[in-house]
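Comment thread on ticket #2218

A.B. wrote:
> Attaching the input chain for the structure job we discussed in standup.
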Amino acid sequence: MSMQTFKLDIPQEKLPRHVAIIMDGNGRWAEQRNLPRFAGHKAGVETVRSVVQLSGELGIEALTLFAFSSENWRRPKKEVGLLMELFLTALEREVNKLHESGVKLRVIGDLSEFPKKLQKRIQDSMSMTAGNNGLILNIAANYGGKWDITQAVKKVVQQIQEGDLTVDQIDEQSIADNLALSDLSEPDLFIRTGGEQRISNFLIWQLAYSELYFTRVLWPDFDREEFATAVKSFASRQRRFGHTGNQILEMEQGKNA
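C.D. wrote:
> Ran it. Output below, let me know if you need it in another format.
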């Protein structure tokens, strides 16, 4: 994973620093092959391994993957149970490889709902990789964007109650500082596989200015060529953040002067 083998003809400054992905289509991938849905989730783990490797090779700083949403508890009980087992098995199997490759693993979301064994494995995995300086891999598990904002607001209210903040001091930054991933740059590129074109309660605050990329390719089939296509699409766009196109060109020319 540490070998720098995946190259694109794109300047490093044009590449996304932070990529966020909704990994959709595992169940449909399996159904198309007359396999149980769980087989699609297992195949999706292989794609995760590939995308983590490619992100590291490209020099992407952070990768955030939506593994299990707060709404996924509504799925059939058997499927949820199998997903929990797969999550635990994948952590046990992959964390040493991640650690050897310098990847820092973080899991974000309300972890209190998970089985105790899985909670411990998550904490152990994060502790093992905490000192690494390579790719930051964020796994969103039992995560929801509305939950994220709600828990940030609770923290702000607590700061007010403790006298560390006044109501007049509440602004966007004070909220953002208490969100998950507050220490990282917001995602530059959001990818969703599987054909659906919505954000589905994923990082809804942090994705405000992200470039959105949707593909019909199902997650288990999202290979390095598909990943390269998404990154190239991002690199071809002009990010304005409220400015005009001419203003952006003038700023870029000023940097290069």
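A.B. wrote:
> Thanks. Noting for the ticket: Residues 77-100 form the longest helix (24 residues).
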